[in-house]
Design goal:
The chain has 250 residues and is an alpha/beta fold. The chain has one domain: Purple Acid Phosphatase, chain A, domain 2 (4-Layer Sandwich).
């Protein structure tokens, strides 16, 4: 079974559709959406329409910090990350607010555990950016011995960590499109990147495809019309900063 792992869509319908279509051509049989469905981008309605269609099937969907902010926007905008929350909230229906609010912070399916940020206190939205934070997240699954894989997003970068012979984790920078063996006798944690707002200098969308039968994880990059997504942000009157990021990948 092939599970497509998509995170940080950020209301970017062009990138989302491109990744969904690409995953299907790669044989994806199930989709997992790892939070931050909305925020930053100009098309939260279109994205949530797609998401709710997937939810009517067997998709696995969890909540991100921007989904939480879209339900209850902060009273004061204290940082750039929350600057689109009130606008996004106003675009959505009461039913869509309820849908986002009901999403769980984590989901487990067999040996796979999904979380948006760190499994260590997922409600605190901690970033997994290095071996230490990855270890803290993976250690939080110690009470679930059947879990061998923790998949998340939040950091907008693609990295794979694994526990070697010692107690620490080893980081691995994947090559897009190249399957990485992830055998079950080890413990693995991956940040799958961002569909809708990459931040590694490459504007291509990111996602990952996990083949459970072969124990292989393939990180993907997908070209899409990022100029159209940026133009939609500007037309909506949202901060141009977010449009600029789409065009530079920064």
């Amino acid at each position: 079974m092939k599970l497509a792992l998509l995170s940080d869509i950020h209301a970017n319908i062009q990138a989302f559709d491109a990744c969904l279509n690409h995953a299907r051509t790669q044989g994806a049989q199930q989709f997992a959406l790892l939070g931050d469905l909305v925020g930053y981008g100009a098309d939260p309605l279109a994205v949530l329409d797609r998401v709710q269609t997937l939810a009517d099937g067997d998709a696995l969907i969890i909540k991100g910090n921007h989904d939480e902010m879209a339900v209850t926007p902060p009273a004061d905008v204290q940082h750039v990350g929350s600057s689109t929350a009130a606008w996004t909230h106003a675009q959505l229906s009461a039913e869509q607010h309820s849908f986002l609010d009901r999403l769980p912070l984590t989901l487990q399916q067999g040996p796979v555990l999904l979380v948006h940020a760190s499994l260590n206190a997922p409600e605190r939205w901690r970033y997994v950016t290095d071996e230490r934070s990855a270890s803290a997240s993976l250690d939080a699954a110690a009470d679930k011995p059947e879990v061998r894989y923790v998949f998340g997003g939040h950091v907008h970068h693609q990295t794979l960590y694994y526990r070697g012979v010692g107690a620490g984790l080893m980081p691995f920078k994947p090559t897009p499109g190249v399957a990485v063996p992830v055998p079950r006798h080890r413990h693995w944690l991956a940040t799958v990147g961002s569909v809708g707002q990459p931040r590694d200098g490459n504007p291509q969308a990111m996602y990952a495809l996990f083949d459970l039968d072969k124990s292989q994880l393939t990180f993907q990059r997908v070209s899409y019309d990022h100029h159209a997504a940026a133009a939609a942000i500007r037309r909506a009157g949202l901060p141009a900063y977010f449009a600029d990021r789409l065009e530079t990948g920064q």
